[in-house]
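Justification of computing resources. Each target in the renewal requires a structure prediction run like the one illustrated here; the chain below, 328 residues long, is used simply to show the kind of job we budget for.
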Amino acid sequence: MDNNSLHPQSEHKAALGASMYVPTTHKDLLAIANGDKFSHLRSVILCTEDAIAERDLSYALFNLSLALQNMADESDTLRFVRVRNLEVLSRVLAMPGADKLSGFVLPKSTRHNFAAYFELVRHTHHLLMPTLETAEVFDDEEMKQFRLLLSAPEVRRRILALRIGGNDLLALLGLRRPTSGTIYQTPLGQVIGRLVTIFKPHGFQLTAPVFEHLSQGSWLDAEVAQDMAHGMIAKTAIHPDQVPQIERHYQVAQSDIELALRIIDPDSPAVFRMQESMCEVATHSSWALRIIEQARLFGIRHAADNAAAHQATTSLTQLSSDEGIARP
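Resulting structure tokens:
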């Protein structure tokens, strides 16, 4: 693949929603990576880092190498490897079939270690998702310096998203996520807000931390809602049951799609009232385009319940084939 053709925005639609971590020791690693098992996955992250004990690393890499050799060349699922360190990245890149991967999740990324990782993939097609999970994350100036490094043209087009490593950041504070509540009710709530304001205005997308309490579905629902309010484009799942639960939140409300379609209507006035809110075309168009793209991918909530929803779905189909509509 020609590196000049790469642009992370072209892959965002597949990275939206839920990504699932899978340890590279998993017995069904190949079936999951090929989409034969959990075919609904939009992206999967094959983990060689925290999910793998040091004593199991050799087997994990052997299992990964077998999967890569037998993996289908094409897949509707984006396939990433979460590497453990520079040495593991180098070893994975040398494995036959590494070109079948969409890219890599980089652990504990900072402006001090990123260049060494990037040098290894510079001449490949792979996309990157650096993980923000070190003490530097609490220093806004460090994050701004890291943003400048990532903004270099040859680097920027390879960055699919930045991942927020919630558990590692909480560990630095001597904390663990509570079983009742969301991560936004911990000290990380403010940290996530600052990361959004540091990176998103400059075009970098962010993904939300994992939710590790598998029996607390109502809190997962509440947290995904807060993730989306903060502009997170995805959340990592640690169990297959979390995937549909997360992605239900990405379905677009009927009222939102009606509003979005009105905002991008060229006949709409610059400012108008709808659903008892002020709508301003100049400032709300980017939101409207994002909502339309989200509806294409995840559908309209309760879309089968009424004729108006059917009409909105028809409008989306027409927009999909309209070359004049700008894409988010």
